[in-house]
Design brief:
alpha/beta, 6-stranded mixed β-sheet, about 30% strand, globular
Length: about 200
């Protein structure tokens, strides 16, 4: 996994097409994925949860990039906005497996132009003011991430299990092991492999 500061070099070498729809929206045709890992603690009687690492891939097999704070992710979003000249009629779709979960952490950090949900706390599409459209790949595949990986035909990738102990409390400065980083990277690689297929 690569630090998010390496992403500009990859973006400059990416080849991509655009797809126009009958709804007057043009999409950058790249398989992209996003995921976060979180910790939760008890603060008195309240349960509090927070993100301690995020991962994003722009294209499949181009690398998975990570950061530890929302501010770093906003830098990446701004970079994508500028690189692809994104707006409401020119968008980049980034898939998230179970968007409803991630959305609860990111909903207050973005200015949303459009959110489509199937029920309360279950968005399946959310568009930022900068033209980044998050979509739920779980709704698309109908399978858990592990089963989505099993159903891949072109790419051979398995969901890693047991390498991330969710009982440990981590924050943005917690040092992560190579095994933990590989687990994080793998989850995003499955999403981009699925979208690529």
């Amino acid at each position: 996994m690569l630090p998010h500061s390496d992403l500009p070099n990859i973006l400059n070498s990416l080849e991509y097409e655009t797809i126009k729809t009958n709804k007057k929206v043009e999409y950058i045709n790249l398989p992209c994925g996003f995921d976060i890992e979180t910790s939760s603690i008890k603060d008195g009687d309240k349960k509090v949860a927070f993100m301690y690492i995020w991962m994003v891939a722009i294209g499949h097999d181009t690398g998975v990039f990570y950061g530890r704070t929302w501010a770093e992710f906003f830098e990446v979003c701004e970079l994508l906005h500028q690189k692809f000249k994104l707006n409401q009629s020119r968008r980049l779709v980034i898939y998230v497996h179970n968007l409803g979960y991630e959305f609860q952490f990111m909903r207050k950090y973005f200015n949303w132009k459009e959110v489509f949900a199937v029920s309360e706390r279950k968005p399946i599409k959310a568009v930022t003011e900068h033209g980044i459209e998050f979509r739920d790949s779980y709704i698309l595949s109908g399978f858990s991430l592990a089963n989505t990986a099993k159903n891949l035909t072109k790419y051979k990738i398995k969901k890693l299990v047991g390498d991330l102990d969710y009982s440990l409390i981590r924050h943005h400065e917690t040092q992560l092991t190579n095994e933990e980083m590989a687990y994080c990277e793998n989850d995003v690689a499955i999403v981009t492999a699925y979208i690529s297929e």
